[in-house]
Protein backbone atom coordinates (compact mmCIF):
# COMPACT_ATOMS: atom_id res chain seq x y z
CA UNK A 1 0.00 0.00 0.00
CA UNK A 2 1.36 3.39 -0.96
CA UNK A 3 0.62 5.93 1.74
CA UNK A 4 1.05 9.65 1.26
CA UNK A 5 1.27 11.66 4.49
CA UNK A 6 0.59 15.38 4.29
CA UNK A 7 1.87 16.74 7.61
CA UNK A 8 0.69 20.25 8.40
CA UNK A 9 1.82 21.25 11.88
CA UNK A 10 4.39 24.01 12.34
CA UNK A 11 5.75 22.05 15.34
CA UNK A 12 8.00 19.18 14.16
CA UNK A 13 7.85 17.51 17.60
CA UNK A 14 4.35 18.68 18.56
CA UNK A 15 1.22 16.70 19.29
CA UNK A 16 0.36 15.79 15.71
CA UNK A 17 3.97 14.69 15.07
CA UNK A 18 3.96 12.51 18.21
CA UNK A 19 0.71 10.85 17.15
CA UNK A 20 2.02 10.27 13.65
CA UNK A 21 5.17 8.70 15.06
CA UNK A 22 3.14 6.17 17.07
CA UNK A 23 1.06 5.37 13.99
CA UNK A 24 4.00 4.86 11.64
CA UNK A 25 5.74 2.58 14.19
CA UNK A 26 2.93 0.07 13.67
CA UNK A 27 3.29 -0.14 9.90
CA UNK A 28 4.96 -3.18 8.43
CA UNK A 29 6.88 -3.41 5.15
CA UNK A 30 3.63 -3.53 3.16
CA UNK A 31 3.30 0.23 3.74
CA UNK A 32 5.41 2.44 1.48
CA UNK A 33 5.40 5.96 2.90
CA UNK A 34 5.92 9.28 1.16
CA UNK A 35 5.72 12.22 3.55
CA UNK A 36 5.62 15.95 2.93
CA UNK A 37 6.03 18.48 5.74
CA UNK A 38 3.96 21.29 4.33
CA UNK A 39 5.32 24.08 6.56
CA UNK A 40 8.76 23.68 4.98
CA UNK A 41 7.49 23.82 1.42
CA UNK A 42 6.92 26.57 -1.12
CA UNK A 43 3.13 26.39 -1.58
CA UNK A 44 1.27 29.35 -3.00
CA UNK A 45 -2.46 29.92 -2.61
CA UNK A 46 -4.86 29.23 -5.47
CA UNK A 47 -5.65 32.52 -7.24
CA UNK A 48 -8.78 31.19 -9.01
CA UNK A 49 -7.44 31.92 -12.51
CA UNK A 50 -8.77 28.52 -13.69
CA UNK A 51 -5.79 27.95 -15.99
CA UNK A 52 -5.67 24.41 -14.49
CA UNK A 53 -8.94 23.74 -16.29
CA UNK A 54 -7.43 24.27 -19.76
CA UNK A 55 -5.46 21.00 -19.37
CA UNK A 56 -7.84 18.15 -18.67
CA UNK A 57 -5.52 15.12 -18.51
CA UNK A 58 -2.88 16.30 -16.03
CA UNK A 59 -2.03 18.82 -13.36
CA UNK A 60 -1.41 22.29 -14.62
CA UNK A 61 -0.98 25.49 -12.63
CA UNK A 62 0.34 29.02 -13.19
CA UNK A 63 2.32 28.80 -9.94
CA UNK A 64 5.82 27.37 -10.15
CA UNK A 65 6.25 25.92 -6.66
CA UNK A 66 6.37 22.58 -4.79
CA UNK A 67 2.78 21.60 -5.52
CA UNK A 68 3.71 19.49 -8.55
CA UNK A 69 5.56 17.03 -6.24
CA UNK A 70 2.48 16.65 -4.04
CA UNK A 71 0.22 16.23 -7.02
CA UNK A 72 2.47 13.48 -8.50
CA UNK A 73 2.70 11.69 -5.14
CA UNK A 74 -1.08 11.85 -4.67
CA UNK A 75 -1.61 10.20 -8.05
CA UNK A 76 0.93 7.50 -7.14
CA UNK A 77 -0.67 6.77 -3.75
CA UNK A 78 -3.50 4.48 -2.63
CA UNK A 79 -4.22 6.29 0.62
CA UNK A 80 -3.63 9.93 1.61
CA UNK A 81 -3.48 10.89 5.28
CA UNK A 82 -4.17 14.53 6.06
CA UNK A 83 -2.39 15.19 9.39
CA UNK A 84 -3.12 18.58 10.92
CA UNK A 85 -3.73 20.38 14.17
CA UNK A 86 -7.06 22.16 14.34
CA UNK A 87 -6.63 25.91 13.94
CA UNK A 88 -9.73 28.11 14.22
CA UNK A 89 -12.03 25.10 13.81
CA UNK A 90 -10.42 23.83 10.60
CA UNK A 91 -7.00 22.77 9.28
CA UNK A 92 -3.81 24.86 9.28
CA UNK A 93 -3.13 27.29 6.38
CA UNK A 94 -0.73 25.14 4.30
CA UNK A 95 -3.15 22.20 4.50
CA UNK A 96 -5.92 24.44 3.20
CA UNK A 97 -3.68 25.64 0.37
CA UNK A 98 -2.96 22.02 -0.62
CA UNK A 99 -6.65 21.10 -0.45
CA UNK A 100 -7.57 24.03 -2.70
CA UNK A 101 -4.78 23.37 -5.18
CA UNK A 102 -5.69 19.65 -5.30
CA UNK A 103 -9.42 20.08 -5.80
CA UNK A 104 -8.95 22.43 -8.76
CA UNK A 105 -5.78 20.76 -10.07
CA UNK A 106 -7.31 17.28 -9.95
CA UNK A 107 -10.95 17.96 -10.81
CA UNK A 108 -11.60 19.26 -14.29
CA UNK A 109 -15.14 20.27 -13.43
CA UNK A 110 -14.71 24.00 -13.79
CA UNK A 111 -13.82 24.61 -17.45
CA UNK A 112 -15.79 24.92 -20.70
CA UNK A 113 -16.90 21.28 -20.55
CA UNK A 114 -17.23 18.85 -17.65
CA UNK A 115 -14.03 16.83 -17.26
CA UNK A 116 -12.85 14.04 -14.94
CA UNK A 117 -11.52 13.86 -11.40
CA UNK A 118 -7.96 12.67 -12.05
CA UNK A 119 -7.67 11.13 -8.58
CA UNK A 120 -11.07 9.41 -8.49
CA UNK A 121 -11.02 6.21 -6.40
CA UNK A 122 -8.18 7.20 -4.05
CA UNK A 123 -8.83 6.97 -0.33
CA UNK A 124 -8.27 9.76 2.20
CA UNK A 125 -8.23 9.84 6.01
CA UNK A 126 -7.78 12.51 8.66
CA UNK A 127 -5.48 12.64 11.68
CA UNK A 128 -5.93 15.72 13.85
CA UNK A 129 -5.07 17.11 17.28
CA UNK A 130 -6.89 19.86 19.11
CA UNK A 131 -7.43 21.62 22.41
CA UNK A 132 -11.21 21.67 22.77
CA UNK A 133 -13.49 18.64 23.25
CA UNK A 134 -13.50 16.62 20.04
CA UNK A 135 -17.12 17.33 19.10
CA UNK A 136 -16.39 21.07 19.15
CA UNK A 137 -12.89 20.87 17.72
CA UNK A 138 -12.48 18.59 14.69
CA UNK A 139 -16.18 18.16 13.81
CA UNK A 140 -16.22 20.77 11.05
CA UNK A 141 -13.03 19.51 9.44
CA UNK A 142 -14.27 15.90 9.56
CA UNK A 143 -17.48 16.95 7.82
CA UNK A 144 -15.54 19.17 5.40
CA UNK A 145 -13.24 16.31 4.41
CA UNK A 146 -16.18 13.93 4.04
CA UNK A 147 -17.75 16.39 1.61
CA UNK A 148 -14.39 17.06 -0.06
CA UNK A 149 -14.01 13.31 -0.66
CA UNK A 150 -17.44 13.02 -2.24
CA UNK A 151 -16.88 16.03 -4.47
CA UNK A 152 -13.49 14.72 -5.63
CA UNK A 153 -14.82 11.14 -6.09
CA UNK A 154 -12.56 9.83 -3.30
CA UNK A 155 -13.29 7.36 -0.50
CA UNK A 156 -13.29 8.77 3.02
CA UNK A 157 -11.82 6.15 5.36
CA UNK A 158 -12.48 8.11 8.51
CA UNK A 159 -10.94 10.39 11.07
CA UNK A 160 -8.98 9.98 14.28
CA UNK A 161 -7.99 12.76 16.64
CA UNK A 162 -6.69 13.42 20.12
CA UNK A 163 -7.15 16.33 22.46
CA UNK A 164 -4.35 18.05 24.31
CA UNK A 165 -6.02 18.31 27.71
CA UNK A 166 -3.48 20.47 29.46
CA UNK A 167 -0.13 22.13 28.89
CA UNK A 168 0.93 20.73 32.28
CA UNK A 169 0.73 17.02 31.37
CA UNK A 170 2.45 15.28 28.48
CA UNK A 171 0.26 14.84 25.42
CA UNK A 172 1.31 11.23 24.90
CA UNK A 173 0.27 8.51 27.33
CA UNK A 174 -0.53 4.80 27.18
CA UNK A 175 -4.22 5.32 26.30
CA UNK A 176 -3.44 7.75 23.47
CA UNK A 177 -0.78 5.39 22.17
CA UNK A 178 -3.25 2.49 22.17
CA UNK A 179 -5.78 4.48 20.13
CA UNK A 180 -3.08 5.68 17.73
CA UNK A 181 -1.98 2.11 17.15
CA UNK A 182 -5.58 1.04 16.49
CA UNK A 183 -5.90 3.80 13.88
CA UNK A 184 -2.67 2.58 12.26
CA UNK A 185 -4.20 -0.90 11.94
CA UNK A 186 -7.27 0.63 10.31
CA UNK A 187 -5.08 2.48 7.82
CA UNK A 188 -3.15 -0.68 6.95
CA UNK A 189 -6.41 -2.52 6.24
CA UNK A 190 -7.74 0.50 4.36
CA UNK A 191 -9.35 -1.42 1.53
CA UNK A 192 -11.23 -3.72 3.94
CA UNK A 193 -12.64 -0.73 5.78
CA UNK A 194 -14.23 1.03 2.82
CA UNK A 195 -17.98 0.91 2.57
C1 LIG B 1 -3.53 29.52 16.13
C2 LIG B 1 -4.13 28.34 16.84
C3 LIG B 1 -5.47 28.08 16.69
C4 LIG B 1 -6.06 27.00 17.35
N1 LIG B 1 -7.39 26.77 17.18
C5 LIG B 1 -7.97 25.70 17.79
C6 LIG B 1 -9.35 25.42 17.58
O1 LIG B 1 -10.07 26.09 16.86
N2 LIG B 1 -9.87 24.34 18.22
C7 LIG B 1 -9.13 23.54 19.03
O2 LIG B 1 -9.66 22.57 19.56
N3 LIG B 1 -7.80 23.78 19.23
C8 LIG B 1 -7.21 24.84 18.63
N4 LIG B 1 -5.86 25.07 18.80
C9 LIG B 1 -5.04 24.12 19.62
C10 LIG B 1 -4.27 23.13 18.74
O3 LIG B 1 -5.10 22.53 17.79
C11 LIG B 1 -3.64 22.00 19.57
O4 LIG B 1 -2.80 22.53 20.57
C12 LIG B 1 -2.88 21.01 18.69
O5 LIG B 1 -2.71 19.79 19.38
C13 LIG B 1 -1.52 21.52 18.27
O6 LIG B 1 -0.91 20.56 17.45
P1 LIG B 1 0.67 20.51 17.16
O7 LIG B 1 1.35 20.37 18.49
O8 LIG B 1 0.86 19.36 16.28
O9 LIG B 1 1.03 21.79 16.46
C14 LIG B 1 -5.26 26.15 18.17
C15 LIG B 1 -3.88 26.43 18.30
C16 LIG B 1 -3.32 27.50 17.65
C17 LIG B 1 -1.83 27.76 17.81
From TrEMBL:
<dbReference type="InterPro" id="IPR051796">
    <property type="entry name" value="ISF_SsuE-like"/>
</dbReference>
<keyword id="KW-0285">Flavoprotein</keyword>
<feature type="domain" description="NADPH-dependent FMN reductase-like">
    <location>
        <begin position="1"/>
        <end position="132"/>
    </location>
</feature>
<keyword id="KW-0288">FMN</keyword>
<dbReference type="InterPro" id="IPR005025">
    <property type="entry name" value="FMN_Rdtase-like_dom"/>
</dbReference>
<protein>
    <submittedName>
        <fullName>Flavodoxin family protein</fullName>
    </submittedName>
</protein>
<dbReference type="Pfam" id="PF03358">
    <property type="entry name" value="FMN_red"/>
</dbReference>
<dbReference type="InterPro" id="IPR029039">
    <property type="entry name" value="Flavoprotein-like_sf"/>
</dbReference>
Amino acid sequence: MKLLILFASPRPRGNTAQLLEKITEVFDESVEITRFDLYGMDLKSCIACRRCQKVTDSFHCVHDDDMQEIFDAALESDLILFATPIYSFYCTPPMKIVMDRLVYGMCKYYGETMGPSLWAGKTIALLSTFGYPEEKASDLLVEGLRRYAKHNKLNFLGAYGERQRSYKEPFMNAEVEKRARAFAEKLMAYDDNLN
